[in-house]
Design a protein that fits this description.
By secondary structure, this protein is of the alpha/beta class. It has two domains: 2-25 and 99-147, Rossmann fold (3-Layer(aba) Sandwich); 27-94, Putative phosphatase, domain 2 (DNA polymerase, domain 1, Orthogonal Bundle). It has helices at residues 27-42, 49-53, 60-70, 77-94, 105-114, 127-136; strands spanning 2-5, 8-12, 14-17, 24-25, 100-101, 118-122, 145-147. The chain has a three-stranded parallel beta sheet, with helices on one face. A two-stranded antiparallel ribbon has the order 1-2. A hairpin with a 2-residue loop joins strand 1 and strand 2 (8-12). Helix 1 (27-42) crosses helix 4 and helix 3 (60-70) packs across helix 4. The longest helix has 18 residues, at 77-94.
């Protein structure tokens, strides 16, 4: 539905954004977290960011599985489940170390917000991490609602 606002007519009344790959490039921190996990747990060498970028999608357990597979390491479900808490600990400590807004993202969010367009965020990333990223990157205040993968709702496809 569109509405008239300070920018004129035809602008949407609300927009819901995804986070990773839409507003932010989080690959460097995800890759760094995966590499730290695999090095600490198994002494495995670092995977290039470009390779890890192709592993992302379908959640952290799948990322860990793909990282183990890339090294020819055992990647059974029990091992992945055991590694998950450590990955999250590593990632939480560095979630915005190298994560950055894509060029123009802050400007478009600001423009929509100033025009009265309601902004929301829907991501499968855990809610606390999503909130942290938005705060650290200085854009949290523009969002009226943030729904993450731990918000209690069904995950997005």
């Amino acid at each position: 539905m569109s509405t008239c606002n300070t920018r004129g007519c035809g602008w949407p009344s609300a927009i819901i954004f995804d986070l990773d790959g839409t507003l932010v490039d989080s690959v460097p921190d995800l890759a760094g977290s995966l590499n730290t996990l695999l090095a600490d747990a198994f002494g495995l060498p670092e995977l290039p960011i470009a390779e890890v970028r192709n592993m992302i999608g379908a959640g952290v357990p799948k990322l860990i599985e793909r990282g183990l597979k890339a090294h020819g390491a055992d990647h059974d479900a029990a091992r992945i489940e055991a590694l998950l808490p450590k990955f999250m600990e590593i990632y939480l400590a560095r979630a915005t170390q190298d994560t950055a807004l894509f060029p123009g993202a802050a400007e478009i969010l600001k423009a929509y917000s100033e025009a009265g367009v309601k902004l929301g965020l829907c991501t499968n990333k855990p809610t606390d991490v999503s909130e942290q990223i938005l705060r650290d990157l200085g854009v949290r205040d523009w969002f009226g609602s943030v729904i993450g993968g731990t918000s209690g709702y069904a995950k997005k496809p």
